[in-house]
Design a protein that fits this description.
Elements (H helix, E strand, L loop, with lengths): L17 H8 L3 H5 L3 E5 L4 E6 L12 H20 L3 E12 L7 E11 L3 E9 L5 E13 L5
Antiparallel strand pairs: 1-2, 2-4, 3-6, 4-5, 5-6
Length: 151
């Protein structure tokens, strides 16, 4: 469980520490409940996986909202890493196109930056199933702003 009142962990000095920074910071309670696990993290690429089981709709397909939660978790964490100390990134727009349906195993999401600016970031997240078939493509835009006191 993430303690949202905790101070922001120090931003790592180089790529090797970004995954540790991500795990120390946490991705939030919803991502934890859905079983999202970060496996790779840098300014250029972030990867996470999530189980299908426990995240399905009544038809036993991975719920479309689960893809979006995974995409927003990766895109927002990536934007926050880019934002740097004293800043916070918040999502202002997200969209998803679902082109396949995972029914078992895990899905893997790969997040890459499209734009890394001073006040806005945009990331694309491609989600594939265990066979490598694309299931969803998500795009998120985040606004970078000063970190509010106590956040």
């Amino acid at each position: 469980m993430t303690d949202h009142a905790s101070p922001e962990p120090a931003r790592p000095a180089h790529d090797a520490d970004f995954l540790a920074w991500t795990k120390a910071r946490g991705a939030g309670d919803l991502a934890d409940k859905m079983g999202i696990e970060f496996t790779e993290f840098s300014l250029d690429r972030a990867v996470a996986r999530m189980p299908v089981e426990g995240n399905t709709q009544p038809a036993m397909l991975l719920h479309g909202g689960a893809y979006v939660v995974m995409g927003e978790s990766l895109g927002s964490m990536s934007a926050n890493l880019h934002a740097g100390p004293g800043k916070i990134a918040v999502g202002i727009e997200i969209n998803a196109s679902h082109t396949g349906s995972a029914t078992s195993g895990f899905v893997t999401a790969v997040c890459t930056p499209i734009h890394l600016g001073r006040t806005l970031t945009t990331h694309e997240i491609v989600v594939t199933d265990d066979s490598g078939r694309r299931c969803s493509t998500i795009r998120i835009t985040n606004l970078i702003m000063d970190r509010p006191a106590g956040a």
